[in-house]
């Protein structure tokens, strides 16, 4: 008889990719690579200055092409040999996929995709396009004639994938949080949907929690995933 593999649900935040050279908000004094969030990552910023917003994400996308997954990403991919690993990430990079993780849910969108500015009702999934690391320029339009924008969930916008993320959290035999401050909602609330009794591990050198039963591994993502793998092997 084949034993069903346990499901590990992993919630990752900016700290997961920090060791790959992608800066985090909390290390930048509230600025995102020199810009105020209000100027580059809100619907109002897009309406006010779309050229600036496009340029900001074009630069980040071009830089992503030269960034490599770190040992934390690779370690999570290796866990797939023993577990059913489902990753929910707040990050918009593609480092989990490039490391080999097969089940990745992007809560906040993806830098390597673009979407139509004016998708019709129910057409959102059909109006998303893979663009790799190419730039989006003013005048680049979808087949129906509207300007393309980054496929990013900006501050103040709904998070369309949160329902699917909650479903995944409820299926966890083991819940792991890596590199997130657990203060950005709705993602931070996913921990509340983990089944009672499921072991919870928090990997982060700075974030702490008062939740009972949470195993805190106070280190960065790469070392934390290595330690976690050893614990799960026992």
In short:
By secondary structure, the chain is an alpha/beta fold.
Structure description:
With 234 residues, this protein is α/β, with parallel strands linked by helices. The chain has 2 domains: 1-22 and 69-108 and 159-234, TPP-binding domain (Rossmann fold); 25-66 and 114-152, SIR2/SIRT2 'Small Domain'. Helices cover 28% and strands 21% of the residues. The protein has helices at residues 14-18, 37-40, 43-48, 50-64, 71-78, 95-99, 162-170, 221-233, and strands spanning 7-12, 31-32, 35-36, 84-89, 104-106, 109-116, 128-130, 148-152, 174-178, 200-203, 214-217. Strands 5-4-1-9-10-11 form a 6-stranded parallel sheet, with helices on both faces. A 3-stranded antiparallel sheet has the order 7-6-8. Strands 2-3 form a two-stranded antiparallel ribbon. Strand 2 (31-32) and strand 3 form a beta hairpin. Helix 5 packs parallel to helix 8 (221-233). The two termini are 22 Å apart. The mean pLDDT is 89.
């Amino acid at each position: 008889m084949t034993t069903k593999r346990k499901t590990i649900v992993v919630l990752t935040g900016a700290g997961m990719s920090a060791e790959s050279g992608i800066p985090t908000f909390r290390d930048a004094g509230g600025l995102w690579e020199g810009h105020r969030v209000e100027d580059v990552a809100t619907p109002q910023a897009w309406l006010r200055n779309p050229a600036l917003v496009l340029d900001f994400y074009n630069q980040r996308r071009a830089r992503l092409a030269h960034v490599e997954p770190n040992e934390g990403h690779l370690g999570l991919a290796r866990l797939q040999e023993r577990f059913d690993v489902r990753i929910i990430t707040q990050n918009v990079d593609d480092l989990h996929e490039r490391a080999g993780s097969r089940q990745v849910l992007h809560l906040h969108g993806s830098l390597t995709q673009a979407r139509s500015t004016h998708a019709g009702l129910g057409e959102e999934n059909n109006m998303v396009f893979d663009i790799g690391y190419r730039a989006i320029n003013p005048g680049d339009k979808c087949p129906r004639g509207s300007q393309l924008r980054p496929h990013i969930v900006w501050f103040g916008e709904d998070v369309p994938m949160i329902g699917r993320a909650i479903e995944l959290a409820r299926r966890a035999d083991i819940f792991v949080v890596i590199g997130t401050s657990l203060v950005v909602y709705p993602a931070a609330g996913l921990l509340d949907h983990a089944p009672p009794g499921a072991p919870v591990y928090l990997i982060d050198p700075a974030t702490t929690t008062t939740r009972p039963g949470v195993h805190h591994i106070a280190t960065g993502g790469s070392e934390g995933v290595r330690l976690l793998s050893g614990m799960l092997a026992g």
